[in-house]
Amino acid sequence: MNRIASRSIAVWILVALLLGGVAFFVGEYFVKGDTWVMTQGSPHIYNGTNLGTGVVTDRGGTLLLDTSDHRTYATTKELRKSMLHWLGDRHGYISAPALATYAEEMAGYNSVTGLYSYSGGGTARLTLSAKLQTAALKAMGEYKGTVAMYNYKTGELLCAVSTPTYDPDNVPDIEGNEDGTYEGVYVNRFTQSVYIPGSIFKLVTTAAALEELDDIRSQTFTCTGTYSYGREAVTCELVHGELDFDSALAQSCNCAFASIVDQLGAKTLEKYVKKYAVTEPVSFDGVTTAGGNFSITDASAVQVAWSGIGQHKDQINPCRFLTFMGAVANGGRAVEPYLVSKVTAGTSETYRAKATTGKRIMPEAVARELQRMMHNNVIEKYGEENFPEVTVCGKSGTAQVGGEKKSNAMFAGFVADEAYPIAFFVAVEDAGYGRQICVPILSELLPVCMEVLDAE
Ligand SMILES: [Zn+2]
Question: pTM for this structure?
Fold first, then answer.
């Protein structure tokens, strides 16, 4: 009798364990089932390390990628090349984290029915314009770098091209190529690179001066080509002579900016770099960009001055600087950029982007004054005739990188017209002067961007 009782107890324990296990599994299935299905490596969803289900289109519906049948890319070579860093390749050398983020929405996963849209998958619509992407790729020519534009009112990334790139349908011999053509080809320079900013960083120092120095508007500067710190000096390539604050920025006078940095002091400059978030990574659609750098710990006075001029140890990420331009254009608060506008699976919309406005980084009056000064740069230096029909506000930079390479050329800014809320960032490596290299690229692309917006 005792034996039977203890056996039945053992059976009941086993039954309890089994039921508990089933309950646990069912619970886990409903809570985590989507994660199991979406696990990297699930052959239903992924293809190598990249998303393997569904279709990706540009903002106008042009096909960029159909993942069924071994990934079909766009129909033209130029479009395939311009989009590669957002879509990923067939072998997983270039990953596409933004698309992987929406795997669940693309697959239309459902706990009860499973992958109801598994055959074919969903459609992700990007904010990028195919027309503008290919125009940007053409404008970059053989140069390495990145060119990007976004709508600073809505946050939509309209264009973001990274070069060098290649055609995923006709992969070149990258490893065997030793002339540097494909240096850093797997990197999306817009999100993952950092550059020495050079003089575009003077915008940060200018804004800090507008906030901090009450008499900055009435100051004049005398540039003799050299601003001395004992045996060391900040220098200009030209002797700029007498300058007011507007012209100090427009002529990009290092000596005037050394004086401004002296007046601000290292601690205050550091405070504003932090306040404007110019070295912070940007996060959108599962992408976190590289962060920048501003480091003046133990720096000498001349090094602090160079830091306020965009040299020394300064580094900026293109996406972050573009967002900073968006903040200035938008009166001191950035609408954060994003890439995926919506996802549909079957007949239902499973995701739709919302604009996210970041916190205020500078008073509206400071942003307005900086806008005016940046437009003055175009009038005084870059040539309004390069940008007919729009009010462009910008600042160029030429960053020495050392070694045998030429300087990196930069140009950052925005259009200050209601109908065309476009912020832009151009970085061209090993190229020369920002104004000479980047202004023509922008003047080629802006009309295309305006056409794209006009057509919507
Ligand atoms: Zn000067």
Answer: 0.89
**59, 60, 64, 69: CA torsion to nearest 10:** 120
Could you tell me if residue 369 is inside a domain? yes
**Cα separation, 192 vs 45, whole angstroms:** 25
Find the 221 Cα to ligand 1 centroid distance in Å.
9
Q: What is the CA(234)–ligand 1 centre distance, in A? A: 9
Distance 237 CA to ligand 1 centre (A): 7
Site of tokens 């050392």: 402
Q: Kindly report, residue by residue over 123-156, the tens digit of the pLDDT.
A: 999 999 999 999 999 999 999 999 999 999 999 9
Domain that holds residue 281: 191-339+358-454
Whichever domain contains 406, its CATH number is 3.40.710.10
398 Cα–ligand 1 center, Å: 14
Tell me how many helices (H) and strands (E) the chain has: 14, 21
User: What domain count does the chain have?
Assistant: 1
CB contact set of 41 (below 8 Å; sequence gap of 6+): none
How much distance in Å is there from the Cα of 229 to the middle of ligand 1? 15
pLDDT (tens digit per residue) in 312-334: 999 999 999 999 999 999 999 99
Q: Give the Å distance between the CA of 162 and the centre of ligand 1.
A: 33
Q: Are 206 and 309 in contact (CB under 8 A)?
A: no
List Cα–Cα distances, 59 to 25, 62, 63, 343, 347, in angstroms: 41, 7, 10, 12, 19
In angstroms, how far is the first alpha carbon of the chain from the final one? 85
How remote is the CA of residue 218 from the centroid of ligand 1, in Å? Answer: 18
Judge whether 43 lies within some domain.
no
Distance 247 CA to ligand 1 centre (A): 10
